[in-house]
Amino acid sequence: MSAAGSPVPNGANEIDYVRKPSFVKFFSGPRNAERLRLPREWIHRHGDDLPHFCKLVMPTGGEWRVRLLNLASGCHFCDGWSDFVRGNRIRHSDFITFTYVRGGVFNVKRYDFGSGCPPRDEYEPDVGEYSDVVLSPDIDSEDDCPPSENGSDEDSSEDYIAYRSVPIADEYPSFNVVLNKSILERTLEIPLSFWRAHLRMSAWEDYVYFMVEEKTWLVELQCVNERICVKHGWRRFKDDNALVEGVRCNFLLVNLDEVQFYVTFSR
């Protein structure tokens, strides 16, 4: 047993520990600073005996008591979650793993997105950075034009290349877009084959989040003739990131529940 009272894998108990229910979350500062939604599938499989109050235990032995609320949008860590975030210096784009031990106790670990390793102690907390987010799409910008007439959602397109290649974990799918004049002047289209492979079709009806380093943009999608493209928010996103023709954009799908893409550029 650890100082925090949670089982630690050791010897014969190691196999039993790794079989315990677990899940991973990508931490978005603007969305998750005050509460965190647990994956629906995990709740469906393992959430029957979860108490109203849970305990989050870090490798250092620190413990945080958080309240679990079942809201219309799903099951969330709420009261006490923000204290956990600040107390452990959780930063935007961190990966957090949760292993359910028993009786509402979760063993928690966090990993830096860039290195894939636990962040060093000298990382400074910066809760103020979470305010750097565009939470409303530019609905007045008239970028709700449909995709070009000759567009295609085929993976063989020179502009849209769907594949499973991510910098840290292979289970996170991504697709590439090479920006051309049509995309810049009209709007971004998400390959339909990619969407069908990794997301429920109805997810396009909800807002989608594009994250670049420590900033987040809210975008709204539309589905026209089985083609999913950005209805509102593309103009602001491309202008804020100074996107021009020839830039390759990599969209990493880091959250399937809330549809969050972590975007990087090759200029």
From TrEMBL:
InterPro entries: B3_DNA-bd, DNA-bd_pseudobarrel_sf, Plant_B3_domain. Transmembrane segments: none annotated. PROSITE patterns: B3. One of its GO terms (molecular function) is DNA binding. GO terms for cellular component: nucleus. This is B3 domain-containing protein REM1-like. Residues 137-157 are annotated as: Disordered. It comes from the Eukaryota. SUPFAM superfamilies: DNA-binding pseudobarrel domain. Its main location: nucleus. It comes from Salvia divinorum. Residues 21-114, 215-267 form the TF-B3 domain. Pfam families: B3. The keyword Nucleus applies. It is found in: Nucleus. Residues 139-157 have a biased composition (Acidic residues).
